[in-house]
Automatic annotation (TrEMBL):
Origin superkingdom: Bacteria
One of the Pfam families matching this protein, by short name: Glyoxalase
UniProt domain VOC: residue ranges: 5-120
InterPro entries (UniProt xref): Glyas_Bleomycin-R_OHBP_Dase, Glyas_Fos-R_dOase_dom, VOC_core
Name under which the protein is recorded: VOC family protein
Length: 130
């Protein structure tokens, strides 16, 4: 390993069963229950961990949370339909091409966590744009 790498992202959720149903449908994988309040989904080399905190330990989330989980997908059109069918809190009107070349759309999971789905062959990983 040449340096730090991201291997797990925690996605705070208010109801683990709702999270499992939503992410299982969106990701096309049932994932794995790790604990009563924790469910892991493997996304490439990164684990997306849905974690339901006890009610007394939940913190209010600001309206504009800067954390966005970006997910590379093989077919952004099919994924858009999957996410729409899974019941997001909010979803873009459609797929857009960003000025840096990525084809993507944004959605919020049922708990308001922001997600972005990007067509795999258009990923921008840094460097000059254009």
């Amino acid at each position: 390993m040449s340096g730090p790498r991201v291997f797990r992202l925690i996605q705070p959720v208010d109801d683990i069963e709702t999270a499992v149903a939503f992410y299982g449908r969106v990701l096309g994988d049932a994932g794995e229950r790790i604990a009563l309040n924790r469910h892991y989904f493997t996304c490439g080399s990164v684990v997306l961990a849905c974690v339901e905190a006890p009610l007394e330990r939940r913190e209010p989330r600001p309206d504009k949370d800067p954390r966005i989980v970006y997910l590379a997908v093989d077919d952004v059109e099919a994924t858009f339909e999957q996410v729409r069918a899974a019941g997001p809190r909010w979803i873009d009107d459609g797929i857009a091409t960003q000025f840096w070349g990525e084809r993507s759309f944004y959605a919020d999971d049922p708990f308001g966590n922001p997600l972005c789905f990007v067509q795999e062959d258009t990923l921008y990983l840094g460097g000059p744009v254009g």
